Amino acid sequence: MSKVAQAPRSDARSYLLTPRQCAAARAWLGWSQASLGRAAGVARKTVSDFEKGRREPNWRTAKEIMLAFERHGLEVGPGLLRHVER
Fold first, then answer.
1. Secondary structure of the chain in the HEC alphabet?
2. Is the distance from CB of 33 to CB of 26 less than 8 angstroms?
3. What is the arithmetic mean of pLDDT over 13-33?
4. Predicted TM-score (pTM) above 0.85
5. Which residues lie below 8 Å from residue 32, measured CB to CB, with a gap of 6+?
6. How far is CA 66 from CA 1, 7, 12, 61, 79, in A?
7. CATH code for 15-78?
8. The predicted structure's pLDDT at residue 79
9. pLDDT tens sequence across 63-78
């Protein structure tokens, strides 16, 4: 059996990033949904639908959004949103 790491199942996705955290982090950076989409490499509609609770992003998309925030000095995670000095 292969020992390749797998992404968490879909029921574990929501702990990565909540819609409220996403919107708050965007506001902190002064980003529009389109700006976040560009920074994360996802569609603006994906960001909009997630923040409105219409759909939950897949694990990879949630991770790309979190990484976009981290590249701009915000640490986002379960119950966490803070500015990180570099």
1. CCCCCCCCCHHHHHHCCCHHHHHHHHHHHCCCHHHHHHHHCCCHHHHHHHHCCCCCCCHHHHHHHHHHHHHCCEEEECCEEEECCC
2. yes
3. 88
4. no
5. 26, 44
6. 31, 15, 15, 9, 13
7. 1.10.260.40
8. 77
9. 999 999 999 999 887 7
